[in-house]
Specification:
The protein is an alpha+beta fold. It has helices at 6-22, 28-35, 40-52, and strands spanning 57-58, 66-67, 74-81, 86-87, 94-96, 109-114, 128-131, 142-147, 150-155.
Amino acid sequence: MEKLTSRQVQVLDVIRSHISDTGYPPTRADIASELGFKSPNAAEEHLKALARKGAIEMIPGTSRGIRLPESDGLPIVGRVAAGNPILAEENIEDTCEVPASLFRPRADFLLRVRGDSMINAGILNDDLLAVHKTPEAHDGQIVVARIDDEVTVKRLRRTKSK
């Protein structure tokens, strides 16, 4: 990859941060707002330069069509309880040499499972669980949920409130 300018590094940091926080890439307007550009067109020019240099991949025709190139593996970012919730540990402990594109949707990171309450779903103690960040989940999906400073893995079951 070619050397990036300081402004391009800032744009790349905004992209990484937005993906980390929300699970999806920012729009050109998001980048412009975050970095004080006068218009989304300025963000677009920086994105084109980043794509030419191999720092990002652009998907035409979509407002959030920005993808970070695959790394050599997925980070293992701590543990998740399959049973009683455990303290969330958000430190990268290691990486696993498996392509993120193996999973649909693409996995963002891995968590190591502690406990056996999800054994009927095929999730065993000490398994690595591929996690895709998303702002919403649907009834019946297996989710990693954060409750205060603890995380747990469960099947989401919504109840009707009166």
